[in-house]
Amino acid sequence: MTARPPRHRNLAAPARFAARWRELAACRGVGLNLFFPERGESAGPARRVCATCPVRQPCMDYAISNRITHGIWGGLTERERRALRSGWVRASRRERDRAILAAEAAGYTAAAIGRSFGLSRTSVTRIVRTENDTGRPG
Description:
Elements: H1 13-19, H2 44-51, H3 56-65, H4 78-105, H5 110-117, H6 121-134
Helix pairs in contact: 3-4, 4-6, 5-6
């Protein structure tokens, strides 16, 4: 008896788009030096390419999420991304903390919540305790 080949599910539309944003980028095929200007050189030419790009946001999100410190990504320099990242991280943590508090209110244990969020039980307890002490998440 021969086994059937494994069935692979297609990625949902958002996941397919997320996985192939680079293929859709306006910078595809453009020289990399344009996006990595030397000190004192203008970022203007790279910004002009980025301004017409249909995947500018996923590009910027990728650079911020992966802490890329060089080059122009999503039309932003490293300094501009760093400023955005601090606000992005705070918003992301607030959202995570609200979800943790909802799970705790629903009766899940700190260990189960920690496994779901990739946190230690101690971190989950700290987040819950901070909410109980201050009335605010995190």
